Amino acid sequence: MVLAHNLGFPRMGDKRELKWALEGYWKGQLSQEELIKVGNELQNLHWKRQKEGGLDLIPVGDFSWYDHVLDMSVLLGVIPPRFGHTGGNVDLNTYFRMARGRSIQGKEAAACEMTKWFNTNYHYIVPEFQSQQIFSLSSNILFERVTAAQELGMPMKPVLLGPLSFLWLGKVKGDAFDKLSLLEGLLPAYSQVLQQLKTQGVEWVQIDEPILVLDLPPDWKAAFKKAYDYLANSGLKCLLTTYFGALGDNTQLACQLPTAGLHIDLTSAPEQLIKVLDGLPSDKILSVGIVDGRNIWRNDLEASLQQLETVHKRLGDRLWVAPSCSLLHCPMDLTLELGLDKELKSWLAFAVQKIEEVVALKQALTKGREAVAATLKASAAAQASRRQSNRTHRPEVRTRIASVNEKLAQRCHDYSTRAQAQREYLKLPLYPTTTIGSFPQTANIRKARQEFKKGQISAQEYDEQMKAEIQKAIREQEKYGLDVLVHGEAERNDMVEYFGEQLEGFAFTQNGWVQSYGSRCVKPPIIYGDVARAQPMTVEWIRYAQSLTDKWVKGMLTGPVTILQWSFVRDDQSRADTCLQIALALRDEVLDLEQAGIKIIQIDEPAFREGLPLRRLEWKQYLDWAVRCFQVSAAGVEDETQIHTHMCYSEFNDIIEAIAALDADVITIETSRSDGELLAAFAAFNYPNEIGPGVYDIHSPSLPTVNQIVGLIKKATQYIPPERLWINPDCGLKTRDWPEVESALCTMVAAAQKLRA
């Protein structure tokens, strides 16, 4: 029969219970037993909700203490030597030291690198491979979770990241070698995992190979057949899972691999369906990802059903229905949203509702449309409401978009001319020091924000408290000796949400949390209509901060591409058009900041590479409009006004020309976890503008030393002239506490002074 299943479920809980438990454990406020108890309760609850929702198969192994890629590293014994693992099962403290550099027990060590999961805002922990890498089963957690699911009577399928994707996502450390050469040693370990699952009575296993939607070299394509021929003898039925794009030239390869089923993502690549159907063997299951696992818009059930009915005629009971990808990328449950406008809420679906949509589609196929008539009617009404609503279009915004020309996207003069003007005007020292923007969001700040939202304090009282926090940030930075200061962003709940709250065309949730990495969650805004700025958003805060000091204070903005990428974006017009609307709103803010006397303005674009399509053929179109949007937001200022941007956890090598085309006067980047590797890309390209290589990994509680920072900057001078180098942390300091910040930034300033000397 047609089956309804799921690829993965959110981990954090309705009220982010896992976040609070993890952070309590890391602070020593919760025992390991208490942490595990919270995790087990959440996992069991999530299984129960999916089963009661009507799914025929529920994923097991998608729950994680930090990250599912890190889980695979631990399962397979891929533990970097610096963590001192000598064999046997990897304990939880070693696991957290790999993720964060530190845990309750065990010696501190440099945390493993973290980067973006394909083109999403989820960050994974990068596996590290040595030339003589040995793979051996080093964790029982997956098998214990399978047993727990069986004891609860869950109809489950374990989830594994596939061997080729695991290797592809990892990095070679130490002596250079071809990481694909590790496959021969890796496959026996995977086989052991499958054999163990077989002995536990497992029938189906989901093996994720998302790299099949990428441009793969010939040797990697050939390796797929070798790998799955080897694993085919496990006796388990394997569902090979792909998502985030089309199989494209890998279609025949994926269809012909010796697996029992194949999953494809039709929400991001509907055009691949016919080609896959034509290439699918007559005995293979096709799982169709028809409900969007990455966005929050309600599914058009009628349109989906028409598509599925065509597939059902060809495949019969060999058709499965599912979300496009793991629901990790969606908020948990729409019913928790009590403050959303009724009409807008009717347009949305979160993880729990997406499971209901999958099950409804399955029931319509197996029992007939009459069985879900009310559900289909409600879906059709929501689609009609959204199409006909006058809330989504603003004629004045459309008119302004149509008037954008190339002149609007160009600075008055080139960088060399601007740099000279900025040196004379700003008078900054060699190796200027600064931070990326935010300072610790203390309990007092969060308390004031909550009290203001609940109406317990007035707007004036809230403003006074925020100004006190800004004054503290300025005084602390002056004490540390930083050269360019920031106001600390005390008034901002989130670098995207804050701006969305002040832009028209955005809506917000109360509990729409999505995991970004580890315990870090974000609450993406919803872009439902045309975007415009009603009034200045940051000017008064920055003007106040600048009035407190004789040093320069940066204006801090989130860039148009990042606001787009880190929101749930409307799907009824192109992303390029939505991004340009945001860029024009930000341009107005930049010009108002300059008019207020702010001569250094940072427009952050940490999500710039994240938006890159997975296929190179589509890169140029994206980069053209993404670069143009940034330029439009920044290009209206005078030569003396210095435009900064910030990007973190991105591989720049293959898009360095586009980074240069942004024409920011200064770019700050992450280099501490990657040991300065990114700088080579800027050097090889002969990047012409100024660079701030991050010297302090703010995602780890471990603090840098003066010698470490000096060493990293000296390494940077091999690539970038000293007069074009800045010294700064990797990212904002929102998640750290003040004692850590003081220690790290004073160390950073001392390193700058040593370098100048």
From TrEMBL:
Pathway: Amino-acid biosynthesis; L-methionine biosynthesis via de novo pathway; L-methionine from L-homocysteine (MetE route): step 1/1. Binds 2 Zn(2+) ions per subunit. Binds 1 zinc ion per subunit. Residues 432-753 form the Cobalamin-independent methionine synthase MetE C-terminal/archaeal domain. The active site is at H699 (proton donor). InterPro entries: Cbl-indep_Met_Synth_N (IPR013215), Cobalamin-indep_Met_synthase (IPR006276), Met_Synth_C/arc (IPR002629), UROD/MetE-like_sf (IPR038071). Residues 4-314 form the Cobalamin-independent methionine synthase MetE N-terminal domain. Its EC number is 2.1.1.14. This is 5-methyltetrahydropteroyltriglutamate--homocysteine methyltransferase. NCBIfam families: met_syn_B12ind, PRK05222.1. Keywords: Amino-acid biosynthesis, Metal-binding, Methionine biosynthesis, Methyltransferase, Repeat, Transferase, Zinc. Zn(2+) binds at H646, C648, E670, C731. The keyword Repeat applies.
